[in-house]
Amino acid sequence: MSQKEVQNMQMIQELEIEMMADMYNRLTAACHKKCIPPVYGDPEIAKGEAVCIDRCVAKFLDIHERIGKKLGQLSMQDEALLKK
Amino acid sequence: MSVPLPPGATGLENIDPDQIKTFKDFLISYNKLTELCFTDCISDFTSRSIKGKEEKCALNCLEKFLKVNQRISQRFQEFQVLANESAIAAAQKMGGS
């Protein structure tokens, strides 16, 4: 591989990590908002809240993947259309 | 004037860029936490002083926030491990045949 290729690969990898971190931050904010009511009588996570968080994380990642797939499909279609 | 240093840094001369990144992340989450707990706990502006109830709420909010983040990070890591394993399995299938 040329130096240019190595450099570009590093840039892409860094971007992937950065986007992963961004997605993680959004996930955290979304699930906190959806599962933790704004009443703080107790510093512990309630049972129901814990279950909610677990499902929320799973669902968020699931949707992230599904949207990614669809987005990939759509951009492939677009590219194919542009080539015509 | 004293400059707040990232934890673990001994002086201003040799700070690792990674440490700065970690410190920045910490400051960002500190700000977010303040915003969240302030919005959820403080809504009475008829008095300047923070009431006992408001302080208790804010401190509970902080503690719970940290616990929630910890739990989310655990779950996230579990998914990460699963995704890695299936990626490795898929690569082996491709390379093995």
From TrEMBL, chain A:
GO MF term set: metal ion binding
Keyword Metal-binding: yes
GO terms for biological process, alphabetical: protein insertion into mitochondrial inner membrane; protein transport
Highest taxon above the source species: Eukaryota
Compartments it resides in: Mitochondrion inner membrane
Keyword annotations: Chaperone, Disulfide bond, Membrane, Metal-binding, Mitochondrion, Mitochondrion inner membrane, Protein transport, Translocation, Transport, Zinc
Main localization (coarse): mitochondrion
Family: Belongs to the small Tim family.
Name this protein carries in UniProt: Mitochondrial import inner membrane translocase subunit
Organism: Phaedon cochleariae
Lineage: Eukaryota, Metazoa, Ecdysozoa, Arthropoda, Hexapoda
From TrEMBL, chain B:
Major localisation: mitochondrion
Gene3D superfamilies: Mitochondrial import inner membrane translocase subunit tim13 like domains
Membrane topology field: Peripheral membrane protein
Transmembrane parts of this sequence: none
Record has Membrane as a keyword: yes
Protein keywords: Chaperone, Disulfide bond, Membrane, Metal-binding, Mitochondrion, Mitochondrion inner membrane, Protein transport, Translocation, Transport, Zinc
GO biological process: protein transport
GO CC terms in record: mitochondrial inner membrane
InterPro entries per UniProt: Mito_inner_translocase_sub (IPR050673), Tim10-like (IPR004217), Tim10-like_dom_sf (IPR035427)
Compartments it resides in: Mitochondrion inner membrane
Biological function: Mitochondrial intermembrane chaperone that participates in the import and insertion of some multi-pass transmembrane proteins into the mitochondrial inner membrane. Also required for the transfer of beta-barrel precursors from the TOM complex to the sorting and assembly machinery (SAM complex) of the outer membrane. Acts as a chaperone-like protein that protects the hydrophobic precursors from aggregation and guide them through the mitochondrial intermembrane space.
Similarity comment text for this entry: Belongs to the small Tim family.
Protein's name according to its UniProt entry: Mitochondrial import inner membrane translocase subunit
